[in-house]
Write a structure and sequence with these properties.
The chain is 33% helix and 7% strand. By secondary structure, it is mostly helical. The chain folds into two domains: 31 residues, no CATH class; 513 residues, Myeloperoxidase, subunit C (Orthogonal Bundle), CATH 1.10.640.
C-alpha cells in the first residue's frame, strides 16, 4: 500500500498509531480524554451511499473539462476572498490521518491536529512560550517573524532589491532546496499557493501592527502579546461574520444563524452542553460544503505590475502561483515542482510580491486612490459545478505526494474531493436536505444544473447514480447555481452554523461577547477585509503594492 507522507490513526484502546510513508510504525502516543473530546470530527447526517470509482472519475473529469465558461465570473466577490476562504479552512481543519486516497477511514480514525475554532492557531501556533513554536516569533516573543524577498535579474530597479517583510519567514537551511524554502509558520499549507502565502503574511503584519498600537498604552511582554492576539482574533471573526460569509452564503441564512442560533450542529437538544464545550468539526463541512472555494478559483490572475496581461511578464497562471511557494513549488519556473532537490533562490523573488489592490476592492472602503490601473483587478469565478482545467494537474506538494507514485487522476482536485467523501462514507445531499427539512433538488436540477457542468459524458447508469445519491460537495455547488451564486438551504446552513460554533468555541469569541465592537476600522460597526489590509499595511499604497503601477 502506497501512502502520501505519513499516516496516523486513532485506535480505540491504543491511542494514535503513526506510520511513515513506507508503512513502518514510527510512534505510538496515547490520547487524553480532553484530546479525544476536542480533536475529533463529527457527523451531522448518517453515512451515505457512495459513487463507484468509474463514476467519480467521470464526474470529476466533466467538472474540470476545458470548456468555454462565458458567464463564469462573480463581479461581487474580489478574487482575494477565494484564498481568504482557504486560509480560514486551514485555521479550522487539519486532518492528521493523511490516509491513502480511496482508503477506508472510520470516523474514529479522524483526529484533528488543530482546534476547530476560529482563533488563528494557524498563525499563532501554541504561542511564543512554547519551545517548538518559539521559532515563529521575533526575539521579543511578542511579534511574529516576517521574511525577506530575493533580488531578481528582472530588468527593473524596483525588483532588483531585497525587500524585508514581503515574504513568509523561511528555514534558510537544510540539505535540499525544499528544506531551505520551508516556511516558518504553524501551518505549512498556507504556503501552498502564492495568494494564500501573501494572505498569511498580511495577517502577520496585522498582528505586528496591533502590537505597535497596544504598546502605546503601556502594555509589554506576554501581556501585550495576549491582548494583541485577542484583538486580532476578534477583528478577524467580525470580518468573517460581516464581510466574508455574506458573500458566499445567502445573507438571510447567515443572519438567522447569528441572530437566532444554530438549529442542527451542536445545537440545544442535540448533545450540546454549553458554549465552552470544545467544538467538533462536521465531516459535511470539511469534506463538502466548505470546499465551495474550489469552484471560485481562476485559471490565471492579474497579479502585479510585472505579471499581468498587459505587463512585461506573463499573466500569473495558477501553475506559476503554485511555483512561487515553498510547500508546492520551488521558485524556479519550468522545473519539476515534484522534485524537492531543485536548487535556486530560497525566498520569494521580489517581482512576485502581491499587489493587494488587484485582489480586493479598496473602493468599498472609500479609497478610490487604491484602485488598480491598467488591467485592473480580479474577481472570483461563480460558485458552481465548474472548476478550471489547471485543477486537474495539482502539484504533488499540495497533497504531500512528493517522491511517491500515484495514478494521474489523483492530481484532479474534483476527484480528490469526491474520493475523500467516499473514504468517510459522507452523507448525500438528499440526506442532509431531509435532515434540515428542506425540499431537495430534483433529479432534473441535479443532472442539468443552471449554468454549471453538463453531464452528457456520463453513462445513463452513472447519471442515475449521481441523481439518486448526489455527493454532498457536488450538491452544494448545484444548489448555489439555483441561488444566485450563493450557498443555499443545505450548503449555506452547514457553513453558517459551523462558523457560528467555531467562533463560539474559540478562546476569544465575538459570539460570547455580543457587545464587542471593532476599533481598527472606519467606525465601531465596520471591519472588512479591506480594513484589515489597510490597517496592516498602514494605509500606504507602496506597502499594499510595493512594485507600483
Amino acid at each position: 500500500m502506497k501512502h502520501h507522507g505519513s499516516d496516523s490513526f486513532f485506535v480505540v484502546g491504543e491511542g494514535v498509531l503513526e506510520f511513515s510513508g513506507a508503512g513502518e510504525p514510527t510512534a505510538r502516543r496515547p490520547l487524553t480524554v480532553e484530546e479525544l473530546r476536542r480533536f475529533r470530527f463529527s457527523r451531522l447526517g448518517p453515512e451515505g451511499v457512495q459513487l463507484d470509482e468509474a463514476t467519480r472519475t467521470a464526474l470529476a473529469t466533466a467538472m474540470t473539462a476545458e470548456v468555454p465558461q462565458p458567464d463564469s465570473e462573480n463581479p461581487a466577490i474580489p478574487a482575494g476572498f477565494t484564498y481568504l476562504g482557504q486560509f480560514v479552512d486551514h485555521d479550522l481543519t487539519m486532518d492528521r490521518t493523511e490516509s491513502q486516497l480511496g482508503g477506508d477511514v472510520n470516523l474514529d480514525d479522524l483526529v484533528q491536529g488543530r482546534s476547530p475554532a476560529l482563533d488563528l492557531d494557524s498563525v499563532y501556533g501554541r504561542g511564543p512560550l512554547d519551545p517548538a513554536d518559539r521559532r515563529f516569533y521575533a526575539d521579543d516573543q511578542v511579534k511574529l517573524k516576517m521574511g525577506k524577498t530575493s533580488a531578481t535579474t528582472f530588468p527593473d530597479e524596483r525588483t532588483n532589491v531585497e525587500l524585508e517583510g514581503f515574504d513568509l519567514p523561511r528555514a534558510g537551511s537544510g540539505a535540499t532546496g525544499a528544506e531551505r524554502r520551508r516556511p516558518l509558520i504553524p501551518d505549512e499549507r498556507n504556503d501552498e499557493n502564492l495568494v494564500i502565502a501573501q494572505t498569511h503574511l498580511a495577517f502577520i503584519r496585522f498582528h505586528n501592527r496591533v502590537v505597535d498600537e497596544l504598546a502605546l498604552t503601556g502594555l509589554s511582554g506576554q501581556r501585550l502579546f495576549r491582548q494583541a492576539r485577542a484583538q486580532v482574533v476578534r477583528h478577524y471573526q467580525w470580518m468573517l461574520r460581516h464581510d466574508h460569509l455574506p458573500r458566499i452564503v445567502d445573507p438571510a441564512i447567515v443572519d438567522d444563524v447569528f441572530t437566532n442560533g444554530r438549529r442542527f450542529f451542536e445545537a440545544p437538544g442535540r448533545g450540546y452542553t454549553g458554549a465552552m464545550q470544545p467544538p467538533t468539526m462536521p465531516l459535511e463541512f470539511s469534506v463538502a460544503a466548505y470546499r465551495l472555494g474550489h469552484s471560485q478559483i481562476r485559471a490565471a490572475y492579474e497579479w502585479n505590475r510585472v505579471f499581468n496581461s498587459g505587463g512585461p511578464g506573463p499573466v500569473a497562471s495558477l501553475l506559476l502561483l503554485f511555483t512561487f511557494t515553498g510547500t508546492s513549488g520551488n521558485f524556479q519556473p519550468g522545473t519539476d515542482l515534484d522534485d524537492p532537490t531543485v536548487a535556486g533562490v530560497d525566498t520569494l523573488p521580489t517581482n512576485w510580491i502581491a499587489d493587494f489592490r488587484r485582489l480586493y476592492d479598496f473602493t468599498e472602503a472609500g479609497r478610490p486612490d487604491l484602485a488598480p490601473t491598467g488591467t485592473g483587478g480580479n474577481v472570483t469565478k461563480k460558485i458552481d459545478t465548474l472548476l478550471v482545467d489547471p485543477l486537474t494537474r495539482l502539484p504533488a506538494g499540495t497533497f504531500d505526494g512528493r517522491g511517491t507514485q500515484f495514478p494521474p487522476i489523483h492530481r484532479n482536485l474534483a476527484f480528490r474531493n469526491l474520493t475523500r467523501a467516499l473514504m468517510v462514507k459522507l452523507a448525500t445531499g438528499q440526506q442532509i436536505a431531509e435532515l434540515f427539512g428542506v425540499a431537495p433538488l430534483t433529479a432534473e436540477q441535479i443532472l442539468n444544473g443552471n449554468g454549471g457542468v453538463t453531464l452528457d459524458s456520463l453513462t445513463e447508469e452513472q447519471k442515475a447514480a449521481v441523481a439518486a445519491n448526489t455527493p454532498l460537495w457536488f450538491y452544494t455547488l448545484r444548489e448555489a447555481e439555483f441561488g444566485n451564486g450563493l450557498l443555499g438551504p443545505v450548503g449555506g446552513r452547514i457553513v453558517a452554523e459551523v462558523f457560528h460554533r467555531a467562533m463560539e468555541g474559540s478562546r476569544t469569541s465575538i459570539v460570547r461577547e455580543p457587545s464587542w465592537r471593532p476599533v481598527f476600522g472606519p467606525d465601531s460597526n465596520t471591519f472588512r477585509m479591506t480594513d484589515l489590509l489597510l490597517f496592516a499595511f498602514e494605509g500606504k499604497a507602496d506597502l499594499l503594492n510595493p512594485l507600483g503601477d
